[in-house]
Amino acid sequence: MEEPRMPVVREIMMRDPVVVSPDASVREAARLMGQYDIGCVVVCREDSVEGIFTERDVLRQAAAGSPWETTPVARCMTPKPVTVAPEEPLPSAIDQMERTRVRHLPVMEEGRLVGIISMRDLLRHRARFLEYLVREQTSELETKNRILQDQDRVMQHHLEIAGRVQRQMLPPARYDLPPLSLAVGYYPLDRVSGDYYDLEVLSPDRLAIVIADASGHSIPAALVSAVAKTVFYAYGRTNESPAVVLRKINDHLLNLIEGEHFVTMFYAVVDRRTLRLTCATAGHPPPYWHRPHAGAGGTVETLDLRGNVLGMVPEPTFEEHTLQLEPGDALLFYTDGVTECRNDRGEFFGRKRVGEFLQSLGGVSSAALVQGLHVELTRFRGSSPFEDDVTFVALSISE
């Protein structure tokens, strides 16, 4: 497509404008305007432009009732008129006409009169001018679109790298520390995720399990979850108490993240010798505990602990609880992307379905639980996509 070119005054001006002397009568000037069908004459003395005399000046003289026919044009012309150069862009000439409230501009080149441009000329060429404006704006939009596409490609490339780095920092999706067995389902909504999980061996017999969810998703949430992970590594290995670790993380997040962001987290430490699990929560969805040998047919319990979300209040409260696990037990930790998964009718998957799912598949391995929940969520939502990051961690105790 040919690049649009700005029309200039020279291309549409009237060359060799009609000129009269300052002593010419109004009648003579009016006769010339009628003869040549023009709206004005230029008043010159030798090579100097003295003024411009227009149809409006004729009408003003006639309305005044004075002997206008014999009056010299010098008495009623517009002296020292606004002029324009022949290479002036048309928008600039139009702007001058609007600012000075005139309809005619003498065209001067090196102090010499070479033409005149009027509003009538501009109207005559309005189609060409409008075509230029359309082509110019189209060209600008195409250029801006190319720039935006280039920027988007760079941003997507950076997001891809950030997502790759984030995934590499996560522990493996399967981990065994007999008799403990863990498996993870991790489904980010975007290339980077606000969900975060971690598995950390604190000693040969003690394993820390963390699952967290930063508010929102994509880049802001991913940055917040990265901060939480960094603080966990700094304090999680040296503290026995999950509640103490959560308080330490909260103290640092208060100074590092903005007020509208926060993190929910569930933190547990399990001893593979005694099968005792000590845990605390920071506003995170309550995990489910399946106990196949408790009562007839087993039970599914929710670990409803109280605790403030991280990064919101300076003096949070976290309950700490200890469970005595048994061989065959299973626990399911998850983020709210699981319970808030919706189907085509807009129904939420909800906590009740999570408990029913665990009850139906209790007694299987952690890997089977994770695979089964993924299949169940896929079946439930149908053609509806996930609306948030989705993460779940299954812990099973072998018989």
* CATH topology assignment of the largest domain: Phosphatase 2c, domain 1
Q: Characterize the biggest β-sheet.
A: 6 strands, antiparallel
The overall average pLDDT, rounded, is: 85
Integer tally of domains = 3
* Helicity level: 25-40%
CATH superfamily of the largest domain: PPM-type phosphatase domain
How large is the share of residues in beta strands? Answer: 25-35%
What is the terminal separation in angstroms? 74 Å
Order of helices and strands: HEEHEEHEHEEHHEEEEHHEEEEEEHHHE
Whole-angstrom Rg: 41 Å
Description:
It is a single chain. This protein has 399 residues and is α+β, with helices and mostly antiparallel strands. It folds into three domains: 9-124, CBS-domain, CATH 3.10.580; 129-169; 170-397, 4-Layer Sandwich (Phosphatase 2c, domain 1). 38% of the residues lie in helices and 26% in strands. The protein is built from eleven helices and 18 strands. It has helices spanning 9-12, 26-36, 55-64, 90-100, 119-124, 126-169, 218-235, 242-256, 336-339, 350-361, 366-381; strands spanning 14-15, 19-20, 40-45, 48-54, 78-79, 104-109, 112-118, 174-177, 180-187, 195-203, 206-214, 263-271, 276-282, 288-291, 299-302, 320-324, 330-334, 390-397. The strands form four sheets. A six-stranded antiparallel beta sheet has the order 8-9-18-17-14-15. A five-stranded antiparallel beta sheet has the order 10-11-12-13-16. Strands 2-3-4-5 form a four-stranded mixed beta sheet. A hairpin with a 2-residue loop joins strand 8 and strand 9 (180-187). The radius of gyration is 41 Å and the shape is rod-shaped. The two termini are 74 Å apart.
